[in-house]
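User: Thanks for the earlier help. One more: Cytochrome P450. Can you show the sequence and predicted structure together?

Assistant: Of course, both are below.
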Amino acid sequence: MPATWILISAFAVALLGYFISSRTVGKRNGAHLPPGPIGLPLIGNILQLRGSQHHLTLSRLRKIYGDLFRCSVFGRDIIIISSEKVARDLLDKRSTKFSGRPSAAGYSAMGLEFNTGFIGYTDTWRLHRRFYHEALRRDVVSRYHSVQLRQAHALIVNIAAQPEGYEKHLQTFSASVILSAVYGYDAVQKDDALVAMVEHVDKLIAERVFSFEVLLASGLPFLLTTPTWVPDFGVKRALSLVREVVQKTTAAPFEYTQTTLANKTGNHSMVGDILRKWEDQSPPQDTVEALKNAAFTAYTAGAETTQSTLLTFVYAMLMNPEVQARAQEQIDAVVQAKRLPDLNDRLFLPLVDAILRETIRWMPSAPIGLPRSTTEDDVYEGYFIRKGSFVVVNIWEIFHDATRYTDPMSFNPNRFLRPDGTLTDDTSYTMIFGFGRRVCPGQYFADNSLWLVVASMLAMFNISKAKDDEGEEMEPDPHWVSGITQ
Ligand code: HEM
């Protein structure tokens, strides 16, 4: 059968399924599907959701459809949440129903089916969370302080030696600090092969995770198995390229830790500490596989998000020199220009924390978080949410709600400070790490890494605009690109 006919038949079957499903399960017990933009038959709203900067598209739609609305792609509902109350009601309080992840065929095609961030609400996921709990929970992350401090100091040395390469140095810091914590791997500061691998895989995943190819493969999974002569819009090739890189990158650092353990060397690390508990016994193969995948997730989830937050911090300081000067004054008063700040100084440097909170709020690095999916039907405030719906929280919109944050587009750390200069109780910035049972397990580690870099950079450098040949300041021209992070 010619390729076009195969495609037309498949579209027709999917179209029929779409109409049957939307007619029969569009409401339950008087509850209706949430409102939302009207889509095209079969493909739904995919064209409206194409492109980057999804948070801005979704923010525009919120103005029309409210805090809970629905888009649809190939008959699959995508529920968009745009208020903290709805996010807490559903993702925190009803977490048994809202803790799934979309089991999209597109993710499996990229080799991410074993990645914690993409596996469903299953026993394997619980095992991964146990590993993170052992290694990264709030009361144990202090075991990484010395590694984080060492990496922050290496970053300062690198920037001092080559300030114009700050972007690359922040990227190296973000990858190295996680490689140290997760695998006990001490990266060399320049051109480290493993760091380069992490950076590459991170970029690929971030670009592809909400991409057209993934949406298409998830809506029309047969595209992944058609013979090569059937047109597939480049989906198979795009996703299998990611798969190859993911497989290579999962194995390499894990083998490094195994070797150091066998040689009785190696630093403290999540993988090393967990494997060490087995002492002379070999851990079961499925435990080893789960640990390998959990570790891979940790570094891919942590590197890009950390780097992106730090780049935003640099931009915020460029544009707000008076805030920078006030923070430097506060730091100088505490460290007396004798040393770099460390985490023991945190209580005495509220402005540094306020700058970090405002950086996260102003330009959140993960503006729509990671999509969830529902594992059961549910009804919320008269709206019917179907089992298997994707759920997205538009963190960007929550952080730019003018009724909560006055003049939300301006960078103003004072909103997190009381008149006496102490920090307010507003910890809403932690929403950047998600909600409920799937909240980011690396949040305490990430928070410490970010604080250390922000404090150290403020202590050591004046962040200012570059000058042109005539000595005139040049205006920065940031480009916000978004995938998972922006
Ligand atoms: C600024 C830094 C970071 C940000 C903004 C961030 C943000 C997030 C977000 C929004 C999620 C999804 C949560 C949800 O579904 O509600 C997540 C999940 C995750 N994060 Fe982070 N993260 C950061 C750093 C880290 C670090 C440093 C690690 C590990 C060392 C890490 C490990 C993970 C893992 C394993 C998941 C998947 C959790 C699951 O699905 O159960 N993250 N992160």
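User: Great, one quick takeaway?

Assistant: The domain at 24-460 is CATH 1.10.630.10 (Cytochrome p450).
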